[in-house]
Write a structure and sequence with these properties.
This protein is mostly helical. The protein has one domain: Cytochrome c/b562 (Four Helix Bundle (Hemerythrin (Met), subunit A)), CATH 1.20.120.10. Helices cover 77% and strands 0% of the residues.
């Protein structure tokens, strides 16, 4: 009887750990997306002419996009959909999903080299935004 209780307790603890780990990975990846949004938002204001061009802010935003584009594809393990804005298609078409992150990283790396002033920002940063938005079209729940 005691063995059964111990086994049941261990199984319950194991299930709680799995759920907690999945919740944690969702929170971690959402934090990375939010950080990118915070860094990119001021660059968007520059694109609209609402604020002056600031090379340091642009480069910082691009650095974070490049870094997160490498890390984020690893943060969608099977079963980590609950509590997430990710659609099931993330796991059904995972190779395509990961390729979009690679494209995002590539576009950000190209923009990082190319952007030196307001004109080059306007010519290059929209490619980064499009690469980011492409993922939202198919793989993210509409808000």
């Amino acid at each position: 009887m005691i063995r059964r209780l111990v086994l049941a307790a261990m199984l319950a603890l194991s299930a709680i750990t799995v759920v907690s780990a999945q919740s944690n990975i969702v929170e971690q990846r959402e934090a990375l997306f939010k950080a990118m949004n915070r860094e990119v938002r001021p660059v968007g204001a520059m694109l609209k002419g609402e604020t002056a061009f600031d090379a340091a802010k642009v480069q910082a935003a691009l650095d974070l996009v490049i870094k997160n584009a490498q890390v984020l594809p690893t943060m969608f393990p099977a079963g980590s959909q609950d509590g997430s804005e990710a659609l099931p298609v993330v796991w059904e078409r995972n190779d395509e999903f990961k390729a979009l992150f690679a494209k995002l990283g590539d576009e950000a790396a190209k923009a990082k080299v190319a952007i030196t002033d307001d004109a080059s920002l306007k010519a290059n940063f929209p490619n980064v935004l499009r690469a980011c938005g492409n993922c939202h079209q198919t793989f993210r729940k509409k808000s």
